[in-house]
Design a protein that fits this description.
single chain, mainly beta, OB fold (Dihydrolipoamide Acetyltransferase, E2P), 5-stranded mixed barrel, 1 helix, rRNA-binding, NA-bd_OB-fold, Ribosomal_uS17_bact/chlr, RNA-binding, Small ribosomal subunit protein uS17
């Protein structure tokens, strides 16, 4: 089964080897037929501490690394393929 891949913006890089990524999803409300925006924060593993606040990154599912971290930041070459 393929791993999920999401795109988002780094909102925090204060933790060592971890970034917090805000991912936005848009959908049409079933009754009101308006476009609704929902955001969610994901903790992702960033081995080299290479990403800073404001960077747009791709994250993919990975093994659990801590209580909150279940995502890994993809390298730029891999992100270009998707």
């Amino acid at each position: 089964m393929p791993k999920r891949v999401l795109q988002g913006v780094v909102v925090s890089d204060k933790n060592d080897k971890t970034v917090v990524v805000k991912v936005e999803r848009r959908f049409t409300h079933p009754l009101l037929k308006k476009t609704v925006r929902r955001t969610k924060n994901y903790h992702a593993h960033d081995e080299g501490n290479g990403h800073k606040v404001g960077d747009i990154v791709w994250i993919e599912e990975g093994r659990p690394m801590s209580k909150l971290k279940r995502w890994v930041v993809r390298d730029e070459a891999g992100a270009a393929e998707a």
